From TrEMBL:
CDD domains: cupin_Bh2720-like (cd02223)
Record-given protein name: Cupin 2 conserved barrel domain protein
Pfam families, per the entry: Cupin_2
Domain Cupin type-2: 60-135
Amino acid sequence: MIPCNCFTCQSNCISDNTYLTWDANDYGPSPLVLNIVHDTLRNPTFRTTRWTGNHMQLTLMSIPADSNIGLENHSEVDQFIRVEAGEGLLLMGDSPYHLTFQQSVNENCAVLIPANTWHNIINTGNEPLKLYSIYAPIEHSFGTVHWTKADSDAEE
């Protein structure tokens, strides 16, 4: 994080919204206090790992309009997602061909995804869908930064 002389979260001290000051560092496994809403809204990347510990991981995501996270399944990982801005459609089910759970999501929605559940979130709005995700145990390599979904797909 950019150092500052305030007594609150480091990210509270960043006042602009430019990519030039975006901090893509993974601060795990050291202790960290941050303004999660501020960091999530400022994140310009498809996916950035903000903190990776031994048993849990925090990622920030920005899903462009007319895009999606991508259909995925984490066989041994529970996942928590919170939407901070935008709107989307959540799909979940027991197979990639049986996504029986469908729910609209928007700002302030929390999503809990059990391990071994197929899921995707489609951005249905005109602005980026801004969200953060917590995985337990960790899902992505320490320091992962995917500027685009194509970067993410290429790594899998």
